Amino acid sequence: MRRIGLVAASATGAVSLALSPAGSAMAAQGTLTVGLATHTNPSGCYTTNVWPMFVANNTNQVATVFDLPNCQGHAISQVRPNESSLFEFGTSVSIS
Question: Which of 33, 36, 56, 63 is positioned for an S-S bond with 84, CB 3.0–4.6 A?
Fold first, then answer.
């Protein structure tokens, strides 16, 4: 009987862990402006067709600037939290 209780407790703990939110790896906290668009709690890749590309990173994560759309090509720079910059050859930005 004691073994059944231990197995049930272990299973309950595993299910709770599997259903819990992933935590801080989900998205950056704050806003990221790329070109003319502002994204709240951004995560992933953002492409713009506005040049020079303006990036304002008001998040808690570093944003990486790429020279091709969809965060392809070369990473040409980074924008640290609470900084902004213009990029003549930037096309997309990645943030996690």
Answer: 56
Q: Helices marked H in the chain — which ranges? A: 2-19
Amino acid making up residue 85: S
Q: Taking CA 19 as the corner, what is the angle to CA 14 and CA 22, rounded to the nearest 5 degrees? A: 110
Instruction: Report the predicted TM-score, pTM, of the whole model to 2 decimal places.
Output: 0.73
Distance CA 37, CA 47 (A): 10
Strand order in the sheet with 72-79: 44-47, 92-95, 63-68, 72-79
57: left (phi over 0), alpha (psi -120 to 50) or beta: beta
What residue has token string 């096309």? 91
pLDDT tens-digit series, residues 1-57: 555 544 444 444 444 444 444 444 578 999 999 999 999 999 999 999 999 999 999
Closest CA to 96 of 23, 40, 26, 14: 26
